[in-house]
């Protein structure tokens, strides 16, 4: 995930992350539900440690580099869910 962000100008969609993690690490790390997909807590925790300047943008369903104007909590979650994609 960290490498993909570097190749994609600091942006990584949930779909791309999910596909990459599933290919490399299997179904236990990239879970698919009936209507949604998500990544395991272990994967998310490792990604946060590698990319402390990256935040989850729920409006765009993507991770991206944090902007100065972003309001985020200590866990890197946006407090204002405006997409800047």
Task: Summarize this structure briefly.
The protein is of the alpha+beta class and 85 residues long.
Structure write-up:
The chain is globular. The longest helix has 12 residues, at 14-25. It is α+β, with helices and mostly antiparallel strands and 85 residues long. Helices cover 33% and strands 20% of the residues. It has a domain at 2-51. The strands form two sheets. Strands 1-5-4 form a three-stranded antiparallel β-sheet. Strands 2-3 form a two-stranded antiparallel sheet. A hairpin with a 4-residue loop joins strand 2 and strand 3.
Number of helices: 3
Largest sheet: 3 strands, antiparallel
Q: Looking at the structure, what is the overall shape?
A: globular
Give the fraction of residues assigned to helices. 25-40%
Q: What would you report as the Rg, rounded to the nearest angstrom? A: 12 Å
Order of helices and strands: HEHEEHEE
Overall number of strands = 5
Give the integer mean of the pLDDT values.
Answer: 80
């Amino acid at each position: 995930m960290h490498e993909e962000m570097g190749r994609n100008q600091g942006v990584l969609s949930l779909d791309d992350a999910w596909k990459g993690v599933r290919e490399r690490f299997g179904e236990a790390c990239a879970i698919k539900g009936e209507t949604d997909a998500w990544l395991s807590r272990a994967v998310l925790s490792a990604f946060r440690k590698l990319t402390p300047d990256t935040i989850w943008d729920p409006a765009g369903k993507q991770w991206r580099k944090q902007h100065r104007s972003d309001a985020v909590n200590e866990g890197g979650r946006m407090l204002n869910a405006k997409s800047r994609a």
